[in-house]
Amino acid sequence: MRLLESFAARSPLSQALPASARPPLAQGPERGAGATPAPDAAADAPLCVRGLTVAYGGKPAVFGVDATLPAGSMTAIVGPNGAGKSTFLKGALGVIPRVAGEATVFGKPFARARHRVAYVPQRASVDWDFPALAEDVVMMGLYPRMGLFRLPGRRHRETARACLARVGMEAFAERQIGQLSGGQQQRVFLARALAQDADLYLLDEPFAGVDAATETVLVSVLQSLRDAGRTVACVHHDLSTVAAYFDRVLLLNGARIAEGPVAETFTEANLQAAYGGRLATAGLAAPGAIPATPAGSPPAPPPGAAAR
Amino acid sequence: MEALAALVAALTLQAGWNASLVALGAGMLGLAAGGAGAFLFLRKRALVSDAASHATLPGVAAAFLVMVAFGGDGRFLPGLMLGSAISAGLGLALVAWITRATRLAEDAAIGAVLSVSFGLGIVLLTVIQIVPAGKAAGLEGFLLGSTAGMLQSEAVTIAVAGAIAAALVFALRRPMTLVAFDPEHAEATGVGVWRTDLAMMGVALLVTVVGLKIVGLVLIVALLIIPPVAARFWTDRVSTLALLATAFGGVAGYVGAAISSIEARLPTGPIIVLAAFAIFAVSFLVSPRRGVLAALLRRRRLEARVHLRQGLLALARGEAVYDRLTLRLLLARGWIRRDGAMTEAGRAAAAAAALDEARWSLARRLLPEAGVAERYDGLTPIGESLTPDQIARIDRGLARPEALA
Questions:
Q1: What average pLDDT score do residues A137-157 get?
Q2: Is residue B374 less than 8 Å (CB to CB) from chain A?
Q3: Which range, of A7-11, B19-23, B142-146, averages the lowest pLDDT?
């Protein structure tokens, strides 16, 4: 709900979205748990992963990763190709089976806190010829709340439209998803996640193959989620924008290399450790220089490209 | 004429109580098959259900033998259905197991299970021919479907089971949609992909088993797949697709069974499948969205617009036009004469086209915020894209080019 309120406050949509149009509040004491930090803060964190190990066909892709996403943070999950960034997300959510380790969401096993998580997989996992309009895809984010038999009502449709408007896609609501550009598809997927009205947003390479305008929209929506107290984590490839977009970083290369606030963690030493010397140092000067890069400055030579 | 009268009688349920019951049962089966098939089609599992349907044959034969061995009537339909469901379930489990345990792709596993179980079933049918009670069993009817001599209780069984399958499809439509569209997202939201696929195959299995008697195991897959494929031509939404596929399946089942009831030797399954194909063929040809005729027409219209526009612009520049299609189109509009010279109307049209083009090119400079560059396609008159105020502004610019510099 905080989500809808937060954007209702800054857009004229608040008038178009009567209180009855809003999805029901998730009730219960756990909603307020984040406000008063428990003695062990990590235990109630939006996402707490301990010793996560995931293997594909006998070969571990991610091993022994510990990570904690604090509430109200926005984390970049960074690492070279094959470092297990996507696998980390999928393993944490149990989309693929874990070999070892555990993950809790707001202090609970994932299965019992699913409704508080919105996951946006890579675009490649989708069948683009599927007969669904942009609006239908967003509506899928509301299915868990609709149950088996209820037909979508007007307020569901209004919520879906409001989520599309939030990502600047309302004009495309009735377009079949395959007829949208890559950036537009990604926006629709973010709108589906918004419709889920979650507290934790996990996105797998949301900026891959999208145009600059879409990237700006996605970042500003994600940042406003964070500012409203939600927690966001993205698998991210472009090292030159990490400091501008995110406040925390998780560096992976199979195992965890480093985790923490960008200013302390996103250092050349850590990057070299993650990328194993494959990273050309051009553009990455002294450790402090990277976080200091202002958001509006012309992009540094993308070191991510050199790493590939 | 007599055949036509018989067909009309059959379609309007005038051809006797039994034939009507069979047609209604087949219609109900078609509804269930179309609905279940819509989601199989979306999940791209059509061939899996083909493996399942072929794997019913050993079960049918085995159930017959067991029932005869216990002194019962070997042709008792619910018993045969149960046997076929068990062996089809085993076939499906085998496909899943082969795909998981080995690195074989699913299509290889399907091919192996389909052919082996069908072969086994045929051998068992031959064995049944030798058994004294088996001579008149008529189990071959399960291959291609047969409604001749169908019992009333059998038709009712089929209709009820078909209705149950259709209800299950309705109840499962949301999880099945989520899993078919984006399995990873579905898994993360708690819609188990494995569980949903299992339930979907269960419904497909039910339809297959129910359809054995009427459509036959060889062709039941067609009744699952053709209706959604035909429906896809008409819509870009899952809900509409599922409803249309259900309707198409129902019509095909009903009409096909009615036609085949005219003459006892007509196999029911093939006729139902042909009825479904007729729906597909019509959709394929005339659907305004994705049909071939509509696509052809759109292409022709676009060609004509491009040729006319470019012909006019060439004429406006004083160039000669050589392209035959362009000449023919210009001539048809009365914009040129046979000798290629412009008519009065042609001069006006060419001037209008040239003005439009000039306005567009200036609009790109004067109104960058209006997104002119994206809207320009070399065909659309600028009046459809910009407001009169904006055009007036452009025209002032055209009148005084020096002021713009």
A1: 83
A2: no
A3: A7-11
Contact between A195 and A159 under an 8 Å Cβ cutoff? The reply is: yes
User: Between chains, do A136 and B174 touch, taking CB under 8 Å as contact?
Assistant: no
CB A101 within 8 A of CB A52: yes
CA torsion through residues B72, B78, B81, B83, sign: negative
In the prediction, which pLDDT does B370 show? 63
- In the three-class reduction of DSSP (H, G, I as helix; E, B as strand; rest coil), residue A233 is classed as strand
| Chain-chain contact of A146 with B42 (C-beta, under 8 angstroms) | no
Domains of chain A (ranges, CATH numbers): 2-17+44-123+200-290+298-307 (3.40.50.300)
Give the DSSP per-residue string, B361-393. HHHHHH-GGGTHHHH--SSS-GGGTS-HHHHHH
Compute how many other C-beta atoms are within 10 angstroms of the C-beta atom of residue A59.
6
Q: How far, in Å, CA of A173 to CA of A157, rounded?
A: 11
User: Would you give the distance in Å from CA B221 to the centre of its chain?
Assistant: 13
B190 touches chain A (CB under 8 A): yes
* CB atoms closer than 10 angstroms to residue B167: 13
pLDDT at position B94, please?
A: 92
Is the minimum CB–CB distance between B171 and chain A shorter than 8 Å? yes
| Chain B residues near residue A94 by CB distance under 8 angstroms | 187
Residue the block writes with tokens 């494995």? B194
Q: What percent of chain B has pLDDT over 70?
A: 96
Q: State the Cα–Cα distance between residues B369 and A172, nearest whole angstrom.
A: 20
Alpha carbon distance B195, B173 (integer Å): 14
What is the ipTM for the molecules in this complex?
0.76
Q: Identity (one letter) of the amino acid at B217?
A: L
CB nearest B174 (choices: A133, A137, A148): A148
- Indicate yes or no: CB of B183 within 8 angstroms of CB of A120: no
| SS3 category, B181 | helix
How far separated are the first and last CA of chain B, in Å rounded?
81
CA distance A39 to A37: 6
Any chain B CB within 8 A of the CB of A196? Answer: yes
Task: Find the residue in B nearest to A131 (Cα).
Answer: B236
Query: B116 φ, ψ to 5°?
Result: -65, -45
pTM across the whole model:
0.79
Amino acid at B352: A
Query: Nearest-CA distance from B185 to chain A in Å?
Result: 6
Residue B371: Cβ-neighbour burial (10 angstroms; 0-12, 13-18, 19+): exposed
Å between A293 CA and nearest CA of chain B: 30
Instruction: Give residues with Cβ within 8 angstroms of A28, minimum separation 6.
Output: none
Residue of A nearest to B173 (CA): A148
Q: How many residues does chain A have?
A: 308
pLDDT at B55: 94
**Chain A contact for B187, CB < 8 A?**
yes
Measured between CA atoms, how close is A126 to chain B, in angstroms? 5
For residue B179, the chain A residue with the least C-alpha distance is A126
**Secondary structure of B1-43 as H, E, C letters:** CHHHHHHHHHHCCCCCHHHHHHHHHHHHHHHHHHHHHHHHHHH
Partner residue opposite A93 with nearest CB, options B177, B188, B240: B188
Residue A221 near residue A29, CB atoms below 8 Å: no
CATH code for the structural domain at B2-287: 1.10.3470.10
Name the least confident of A130-139, A151-160, A164-173, B54-63: A151-160
- Location of structure tokens 């419709």: A195
**What ranges do the domains of chain B cover?**
2-287, 293-404
- State the count of interchain CB pairs (< 8 A) between A and B: 70
Q: Are A135 and A160 in contact (CB under 8 A)?
A: yes
